[in-house]
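Running this now, will post back.
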Amino acid sequence: MKKEQDPIEVAPLRKAPREYRVYPALIERCATLEPVTTAVAHPCDESSLTAAVEAAEADLIRPILVGPEARIRAVAEQLGLDISAYRVVDAPHSHAAAAKAVEIVAAGEAETLMKGSLHTDELMAEVVRKEGGLRTERRVSHAFIMDVPTYPKPLVITDAAINIFPDLETKRDIVQNAIDMAHALEVKLPKIAILSAVETVTPKIPSTIDAAALCKMADRGQITGGLLDGPLAFDNAISKEAAEIKGIRSEVAGDADILLVPDLEAGNMLAKQLSFLANADAAGIVLGARVPIMLTSRADTVRARMASCAIAVCLAHARRQRT
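Update: finished.
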């Protein structure tokens, strides 16, 4: 008699990742907000000019196109884009366009600034210029607002583009900038995970010392408006299960809104890993200046470009309420 075999156990299928929901919700939130006048520095290629026109057609911004006028109009004609409704300010080259766009913002003619087809360093040099720039008492920092299909809410990574090796004071400003942005996006008490390679304070790993100091600075009111914890490794910052396995009891662990990375290299690699391995979108924004600055890229999806604009619009309207 043939022996009956035990039934083969089939592992349950993993649930398909959710659809992108973060960016559509951001753009929808702007439907009731007035479009914001935006100086667009050197929109002289398909990606940057299309981004500005698409954002305008979505009633997010009113663009002022700053750059070589003949070149901008030639690109528009080549792409079949109608820019007749938009103000064009002539500037002979990218450096002059960056300077003129910042001048327009500083004069109060625009409330946000958008990067076109020029190097980020070229634009930021004008932004941080002591005379006539857009500096404030805080350090300027960058944030990626990630739409990760496998994470249930927006995930902010900061700083992955501007501050290379931030010291403790700079990290304090980076955190505060990100908290203020979260408030503008209606996150009332954002949770900030301060990342390192381990969860314990270890003198051999300086980022763990900074994490502990930042948490104490929050306790003393030097950082306000958010809930900080660290050091935390990436796994227990975004996974409650990982945190529980390691015995970490924290309101932040497993539920982070903001990830503060130790340095630019770590942040840049983390954001790109999520983009290319987890199909995440990354909307970039510069914080800590007098106005929000959109750093769009040729590699950005349409979703990410629209999301950068929507975030800037929310920040601009929040700034209006404060002033």
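The CA atoms of residues 30 and 86 lie 21 Å apart. More later if anyone needs it.
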